Amino acid sequence: MIARLWKITLGGALASSTAALILSRIRTGSYGPGVNCTAHWLHGDDAAKIGKLDVSHSLAGIATNTSAVFFWAWFYNKALGRNPTVMRTVLLTAALGPASCVVDYKATPKRFTPGWELVFSRSDMALIYLLMVIGMFCGSLGKSSSYKKTEGNGA
Q: CA of 34: how far to CAs of 11, 12, 69, in Å?
């Protein structure tokens, strides 16, 4: 299940970071603000005003987003269990976006939110969450090494 956890994390992080980059380019004319804003916990809200991609802001923003996706992927992976049914996977995936958004923006101190509200509209943020969840769902598909072991043992 650890292999699946990493696939879920990678799928969600790639999808949400790519969405933030593309939406940022569309909304601001630059790729930077969409990922830099997530580094606001480290650099303050002015991180969202940095138009260029750079190591200090962009790498910190992407690493922060990936860490947050890992956090949600861990819960998602645990909730899926070892052999999830299609219905269980669909229901958990559908609940994941709204649950993560509510916790990220209602239960988390402002300094530690994703910071997307500094650059994006609510509909843009909803799209980023949706794409994150779709990426995580795609990462959950297929057989992980733990499934292969149980199948190889006659289970």
A: 18, 16, 16
Give me the residue label for tokens 């303050």.
44
Give residue 26's identity as a one-letter amino acid code: I
Is the whole-model pTM more than 0.85? yes
> Are 104 and 113 spatial neighbours (Cβ–Cβ below 8 Å)?
yes
C-alpha to C-alpha distance for 97 and 99, rounded to whole angstroms? 6
CB neighbours (10 Å) of residue 75? 14
Q: Cα(33)–Cα(101) distance, rounded to whole angstroms?
A: 20
Distance between start and end Cα atoms, the chain: 16
3-state secondary structure string, the chain? CHHHHHHHHHHHHHHHHHHHHHHHHHHHCCCHHHHHHHHHHHHCHHHHHCCCCCHHHHHHHHHHHHHHHHHHHHHHHHHHCCCCCHHHHHHHHHHHHHHHHHHHHHHCCHHHCCCHHHCCCHHHHHHHHHHHHHHHHHHHCCCCHHHHHHHHCCC
pLDDT over 50 at 149, yes or no: no
pLDDT, tens only, 49-71:
999 999 999 999 999 999 999 99
